[in-house]
Amino acid sequence: MKRVFILYFFFITKLYAQQTETETFGTVPAGVASTIADHEAANKFVGVGLTYSGSALVSSNDPSPFGGANVFFDKIQGKELIIDGYKPNSACTIDVSFWIYKYVEAVTGTEFYVEYSTTGPSGPWIFGPQFNPLPNGPGTVRYHKRSLQVPNNFTSIRFYQAGTLSQYRIDQLVITGTGVGCTFPVKLNTFFGEKFQNDVSLTWSTASETNFSHFVVQKSKDAKGFENIGRIESAGFESEKNEYSFKDEKPFSGNNYYRLKMVDKDGTEDYSKMISVNFDRKALAVFYPNPTQDFVRFENIKTEDISSVVVHKINGEFLGEIHPTTDGIDISGFKSRELILQLKMKNNQTITSRIIKQD
Question: Taking the model in full, what pTM does it have?
Answer without folding.
Answer: 0.62
